[in-house]
Design a protein that fits this description.
Elements (H helix, E strand, L loop, with lengths): L1 H14 L13 E17 L6 E18 L5 E7 L2 E5 L8 E5 L3 E7 L5 E6 L25 H14 L24 E8 L14 E15 L2 E15 L1 H7 L11 E3 L1 E12 L6 E16 L8 E18 L7
Antiparallel strand pairs: 1-2, 1-14, 2-3, 2-4, 3-6, 4-5, 6-7, 8-9, 9-10, 10-12, 11-13, 12-13, 13-14
Amino acid sequence: MIVPTLLALSLLQADAKPAMLSRVFAPNQKYTYDVKSHLQLENRQRGLDTFMPEDFDMNYTFTAEVQQSKADGIVVLHYQRPTMTQIQGETWNSQPQSKVDKVNLDYLLTVSPINEILETIEQKKPAAKIPPKKAKWMTGITVQGGNPIGQFIGEMYRLSLFIGPVDSALDFAPKLPFTEVKPGDTWKRTIGYQPQKLKDKDGKSVVQRLDYTYTYRGPVQVNGKTFQRVTADLDLKTDLAEWAKQFMPEGDASDGPQLSKLPLNLKGTIEFDLDPKTFNTVAARASSEGGFQVFLSDAPKDPLFETRLRGTTTMSLRSIAMVSAKKPQ
């Protein structure tokens, strides 16, 4: 079976002509996608010799309903992601735990045919949050805890799984090229990762830039169906300490050591299968590998906390349904 499959693939590639990858959103249609991810962690805190394994699943469903069509293929979509479900796997001292986080992402998005989000209008304001206390970096480093470094670690987990805010998640990916492409052509796009939970003292989020290299692979066959395939590669190596400090509360002298370095390295690959007529994303499969360390000013060479990680994420188009015409709110 392998030889005929390879032969069919080579014939598809040989016949492939330059293509304009331009997404078509049909009027009055509602797209429903499922996103499922799994993260394998190895964590170690200062003073321990052994990395402790831990597993997380983070899953959600989102919808995008076309509410208005504009010129040049631009549309206004009503985007909703009500919840994200986090499942913490069994560890040496705890049973599996499931938690539903009501993120309540509800936006009117103006989206172009190359999957660029041109405008975001929030439909539901988030509930007021209690201002965080001053940082005490030496205690309570957990994803679930209220410690600001723990919350930031949660953001890095989401970043590594490509499931963060709507503008940088898989939800509107891949970012398509501006011109026609043929198999093997590449293009680069920079995407901003903006933490969905953490804000600075002025209520704003600070953006981390992610540089992707996309490649058009041409038509492929999957389970007897033909798709247009695009892949994306991410290679990130940076120190996030300054980024983190801009929206984390600062301690004073009595709070002890402060965050000094937060080196992160992350490599990721994403494979997209697009509908050959509409170029809607039908499926996406992502994998990532990397790690990070948290250093405080009291021990610049001895990390307080370090993590090695491997992640996988899939996005699949569950359904496309016709809905009654609506006007943007």
